[in-house]
Amino acid sequence: MGPDDFLINLHPLRVFLVVARLLNFSRAAEELHISQSAVSTHVKTLELHVGVPLFEKRGRHVVLTDAGTMLQDYGQRIFSLIDETLQAMNSMKGGQWGKLRVAADTTAGVYVVPAFLGVYRQKFPDVAISLDVVNRSQVVESLRLRQADIAVMGQVPDPPEHWDAKPFLDNELVVIGCPQHPWATRHRIALRELAETPLLVREPGSGTRKALERLLDRVGLSLNIAMELGSNSTIKQAVSHGLGLAVISRRVIELELSAERLVVLDVEGFPIKRAWYVVHLEKSYLSPPAKQFRQLLLTVQLKEPSIPDSLH
Question: What pTM value is reported for the model?
């Protein structure tokens, strides 16, 4: 069999991608509902076609070789492009059915996107929807590999000229503390005081953390980290129990503010004005469901904190 056969018969590539994701031949066999020997045969066939080993054993485990990692990247793109092609063909049916694949950063995915997907579902009940809530770098990778049609995130990816990014909703970053904190009753707290105070922050790469670092950097200050936490929920709990101060999106804390479990502190330079963006690759094909969802997001005025009644 030559290279043409490899391109025509994509089933071994599908099997390889499952093994590459799980790094386990027996679990891949279970997921694919075939025997483990069949999985091994498909992988060996693929290795024969490409001429290089795709996996290597390390003790009792298998890992991808450099060639395997490269093929995994290309394979994901191939099948995403096939899905995109099928969606393009289905566009002749008016976009009333198909798939909508949305990726969102962790804040937008929890506190922003679900409400809009609910509205979208009412309008297009036959469209299959998936929402992948991951960190910012994974959102960008999902778009690049065409594993997502469209994304919602708090910062335009680099380089900006490669992306179509439109703001659709305000995202104010504020400093929060527990009601018993000494700063809760103070006014115009200096930014230098905040920089000298150990803060609870998100992981490196977080859009909120980057915005705070940029603000401090502009005035020659640096971030003082008390603790890195992996989610907004954990940060809110830690702050409400008096473990420290944090910077967070105002939309994330509406319930805690109304319940008086958290307070917004009056700190110089805050709130930091940002926006959430609807993003896709500049030259990528947007399926009708993705176009419809994008249009729904862009009907919202940035000043409004919630979805206007006209969309319900």
Answer: 0.65
